[in-house]
Amino acid sequence: MEPNRNAHATLVDLLDRILDKGLVINADIIISVAGIPLIGVNLRAALAGMETMLKYGVMQAWDEKTRIWENEHRKKQEVSLLNGEEVNLKIYGSYYYSKGIYTAWRSGYFYLTNKRLLLWNGEFDEIIFQVPLDEIKGLIIRSEKYFTKEDKEVLYLIRQDGKVARLHTIETSQFKKTIEQNLKIKGLSLTENPVLIEFKEGPINFLTEGEKVTHRGKKVWYLVPVSGIQQETWRPGHLYLTDKRLCWWYDFERKLDFDIPVNRIVSVTVEMRKTSGLNSDREKVLDIAYLVNSTRKTASFSGEQIDEWVQVLRTIISDQRDEETETCPQCGKTALRKELLKKGCIGCGWVSPRLKQKTEDRGQKTKKITT
Amino acid sequence: MAGARYLYCIADSNEKISFGNIGLENNEVYTIPYKDLCVVIHNCSIEPYKSEDEDKVKLWVTIHEKVVESVWERFDTILPLGFDTIIIGEGEKEPEENMKSWLKDDYENLKKKLNKLKGKAEFGVQIFWDIKIISERIIDVNKEIKKMSDDIKTKSKGLAYMYKQKLENLLKKEIEKEADRCFKDFYERIKRCGDEIKVEKTKKLEEGKQMLMNLSCLLSKEKSKVLGDELEKIDNMEEFSVRFTGPWPPYSFV
User: Which fold has domain A213-322?
Assistant: First the structure.
C-alpha cells in the first residue's frame, strides 16, 4: 500500500492538521487563535469530527476512553512482577488470542519467571497470557502455518485443566527447552508425549492418557450457568463423548467448559423449551442429570443433533446399569444387577416378579402346545 | 516596520532567502535566520485571517500547506505551525524583535524538536470497518442475538420495533468489545512500523463505513513501505479498509 495525497480526498486531512495542530508558541506575542472559532463555526464543526457520531453513539465514549487509556499506558517499560518473582528469560513472541469473533496472534514479551510464564504487552501494559509454572502439563512443538503464511514452529502449551495455548517465539524449540529446564529445577515434571487431537476447528486437547473420543457431532449449544454477574447464556461449542467423560468444548475460548465422568450421568431427557427469553418459540433441549458429590445437577444442551445425542447417551446409561451390582431383596447376596434380573439369585433362588411372570407365560404356552 | 508577521514554519537552516509571492494573499514569503535556524514568514497586518466563506478558508489552508511544503523541499527538517499563527509587536517593540527574543528563549527546545524530526515525515492512517459485515458476524456467532434477529421477522409491527431496540443495544455492546480488540491489535502492529503514534479522534464519514481508528504516525520516509505492507494486510481483510495518507509535514509531532 502506498501513501497518497490525492488533492481532493485529503483536504479534510489537511484542514485537520493545519487548523488544529502545528507548533504552538506559548507566548503573549502572538494573536491567540486557539479555542476561538475564527474561521466560522460550521466549517470547524464539519472538520473536527464533532458531527454526531452516528447511531452507534456509544462509540464516542469508547473512543475517548481508548485515547485516555492509551496515553496512560503508553510509557511503561517493564512488566510489574509479584513479590519475590525473578525473571529467568525474556523473549519476544506471540500468543494466539481467540475470544468472540476476533482472533489474532498478539505479541509482546514472554517472561519466564520462577513463578509463572507470561506474555506482556508493553504498549498497553497488559498481560495477554499467563500460566503458573505448576499448571503446565505438557509442551508440544508443531510446525504449522503461522499468520505470515509461512511454516513456523508453534508451541502448544497444555494446562492441567486441559486448556491449550498456542505460543510462538523466534526460537520456539529453545524456548521450550528453557521452560522444561526451569520446571525441572523447581521439581515439576511434564506429561511425556501428550496428545493433541486434530479437529476441524483446529487441534484441541483435553484428553487424558489413553482416553478416546467415541462420539462427536455438529455444533451444540450449552446453557452456561450463572457465574458472578454473568447470567446464564447459551454458548456455541461441541460435545465430545469419550470412553471416560462427556465433555463440552467452548469453541471461542478453546477450553472445556463442562466435563463429567460418564458414570455420573443419571438420566437424559428431552423437552421442548424456550431457549431465549425474548420469544416464545420452543426448541428441543437436552437435559442431562448427573451427580456431583451426591448432589443432582442438570446441564442443558441444544442443537441440530439432539436426538442423536439422546440415543447415544441412553445406551451408555443402560450399559452402566447392567454393570452395576445390586443386592438380592430376599437373601441380601450381592450380584450383578443384570444377572439378578435375568436369571434370579443363585444363592436363594429368588426371581424378580417380572421374570416369574415371563417364565409362567412361557410355561403356559408350552402347555398349550403339548395339550 | 509596523504590522505583524505570519508564521509558516521553522527550518534547520540559517539561509536568508525569499520564496517569492507564494504566501496568503500573494504575500512574499521569506526567512529570518537566527543562529542555525530560520523562521519562515510573511508580513501582515495585526488582524488574523478570518472569513465566513468556507471556500476562502479552504484556499488559505491549502496555500499555507503549499508554503510549508515548498520550504520542506528546500530544507531537511521543519517544524510546521498551524494556520493563523501571527506574531505582533508589543508596545515599542517591533514584531521582529519579539520573534527574536522568543527564538532565543525557546532555542534549546526548538533544536530538540528539530533533531527528533530529522529525516522523518508524518503519515495518516485511518482504519474503517464495515459495520454491516461485523454485525452480521456477531449475529452469526451470538445465539441470543441471532435468535432475536430471526424472530423479529415474525413479530407484529409494534413488537418488532421493541425487539429491534433490544437487539441494537445488545449488538452495540458486542460491537464495542470487538472494536476494542481490533484497536489493540492494529495499534500494536502499526506501532512496530514507526517511531511514534498519536491516536486522533475518529470521525463519521459515510453510512455503514465507520472509522475504527485514526492515527498520525511519525516515521522516516523510507520506512513508509514497511508500514504500507502492514496496512495492506489489514486492508485485505474483508471487513476492514484503510486510508493511508502522506507524507505530511510533521504537524502532529511538534
Answer: PH-domain like (2.30.29)
